[in-house]
Design goal:
By secondary structure, this protein is mainly alpha-helical. The protein has 18 helices and six strands. The strands form two sheets. It has a three-stranded antiparallel beta sheet. Strands 4-5-6 form a three-stranded antiparallel beta sheet. It binds acetyl coenzyme *A (ACO). The site of acetyl coenzyme *A has 18 residues, from helix 17.
């Protein structure tokens, strides 16, 4: 393979360097293209565009491979804790015992919210979507920690990272308690990251909360599976915002908002709404599979298909096993879960889905598990955000630490009117 590509434009031919990633992916470096030819490239939705070099996560959508810092997702989901994985993504290696203890201690010490911040929750109506609260609260955190506003303050960045990972979980639980009209439950230093989350979500002062260790394990696994996915929409948003040297809180608040969309993290919520709709309509899954195949219906099977995976999503395989485990624990069978499994089977045997390689994605099963755990539907994307946070931070840090980083500023192909004169109001026809 040559290390140069040639591009002919008009009568000019230019040489472009060909880059090879550590897993053999090829990229054509066009950074000098405009300077040398005056032309730009057009790549709607960045389907063919690498926006950066990155050493964090490798995924091969054709082969169904996902690795964080080179370690297969299957091994991490089986053996690691979410806190270890967060460290791995952000700092580039699995923590030694001393590093893990220091990082865990940082998370423990920073889990509480400033008491003034608790009052912010009072201003929201009980019907607020928790994603709106989550993004606003994360942006608000920057007002309590002004030292974090400078991205040049490296020591502060490490504390900010700890604060964010720890407090996002507390904010998420408070937004849930607010929606339920229940008192906020403070974090408990004696509990692990995931157990602390469950305690803040589900315990109430009137009774003792019995921690289910199986649920703690499944939650740990779910968060690990969501922790990074290279240059997805929300991570690219974090990088885009961060490239202006916006602080970590601001960049992550923007990432949360990008995640909210139904074609991204919002899909897990949409999956449950779709299942409820199918159930309300009599539970005929075949009817909805047919509907999804009709382009003019505007209906898609939520939780199926993926921009990158054109094979079974490796995360979906792991999560499906976890879903089976959690749903078996339920006292009564859930009719929506039964519809989900029938829908999965119908779609996986239908040639439309098979030919287009539309497999269930991670959101299809995560929604099922969260429901079985008692987490309400509108909190599903919040759960995704808690999981994805280490990835956002790792990418933001990788970018900030890179001395060659520039503010991101894409070009466009202008298709509007050419120059025309201003027409005074009285003369406009
Ligand atoms: N239901 C029915 N048909 C679908 C679906 C679906 N869920 N997804 C894709 N298709 C069809 C498209 O209509 C298209 O058909 P065509 O080739 O005949 O025109 C073909 O499959 C390719 O689809 P695209 O939209 O071009 O694929 P793209 O990569 O742009 O979209 C996406 C990926 C957005 C995830 C899409 O599959 C989708 O909308 N899925 C449902 C939403 C969802 O589950 N999102 C979560 C993604 S995972 C995540 O963010 C963590």
């Amino acid at each position: 393979m040559s290390d140069r590509a040639q591009l002919k434009i008009g009568d000019k031919t230019i040489d472009l360097p060909v880059l090879v990633g550590s897993e053999g992916e090829l990229g054509i470096d066009i950074s000098k293209l405009r300077a040398e030819t005056g032309a730009v490239t057009l790549d709607p939705a960045f389907v063919n565009t690498a926006s950066t070099r990155s050493a964090i996560t490798f995924l091969d959508g054709e082969k169904g491979i996902l690795r964080y810092r080179g370690i297969p997702i299957e091994q991490l989901a089986e053996n690691a804790t979410f806190v270890e994985v967060a460290y791995l993504l952000i700092y580039g290696h699995l923590p030694k015992q001393t590093e893990l203890s220091a990082f865990s201690e940082l998370l423990t010490r920073h889990s509480m919210l400033h008491e003034d911040m608790k009052r912010f929750f009072d201003g929201y109506p009980g019907t607020s979507h928790p994603m709106a609260i989550l993004s606003a609260m994360v942006a608000s955190l920057s007002s309590f920690y002004p030292a974090a506003l400078s991205v040049k303050n490296k020591q502060e960045i490490d504390i900010t990272i700890g604060r964010l990972i720890s407090k996002l979980r507390t904010i998420a639980c408070y937004s849930y308690k607010k929606s339920m009209g229940q008192p906020f439950v403070y974090p408990k230093n004696s509990l692990s990251y995931c157990a602390n989350f469950l305690n803040m979500m589900f315990s109430i002062p009137a009774e003792t909360y019995e921690m289910d260790e199986d649920l703690v394990k499944v939650l740990n696994q779910l968060l690990i599976l969501h922790a990074d996915h290279e240059q997805n929409c929300s991570t690219s948003t974090v990088r885009m915002v961060g490239s202006s040297q916006a602080n970590l809180f601001a960049s992550v608040a923007a990432g949360i908002l990008a995640l909210w969309g139904p074609l991204h993290g919002g899909a897990n919520e949409e999956v449950l709404e779709m299942l409820q709709g199918i159930s309300d309509d009599g539970g005929d899954v075949k009817k909805y599979v047919e509907l999804a195949k009709k382009k003019d219906s505007g209906f898609r099977l939520m939780g199926f298909g993926h921009r990158v995976y054109k094979n079974y999503d490796p995360r979906a395989k792991i999560i499906k096993r976890a879903a089976d485990k959690v749903t078996k624990k339920m006292k009564e069978p859930d009719p929506l879960l039964e519809i989900a499994y029938r829908l999965e089977e119908a779609a996986l045997t239908d040639s439309y889905f098979v030919d287009r390689k539309l497999y269930p994605n991670v959101d299809f099963y995560s929604g099922i598990i969260y429901r079985a755990m008692g987490i309400p539907t509108n909190m599903f994307t919040v759960m995704f955000a808690i999981g994805r946070l280490p990835g956002w931070i790792a990418h933001w840090k990788e970018m900030v630490d890179d001395p060659t980083t520039k503010i991101m500023r894409p070009r466009q192909i202008y298709t509007g009117p050419t120059e025309q004169p201003f027409v005074p109001l009285a003369k406009r026809g």
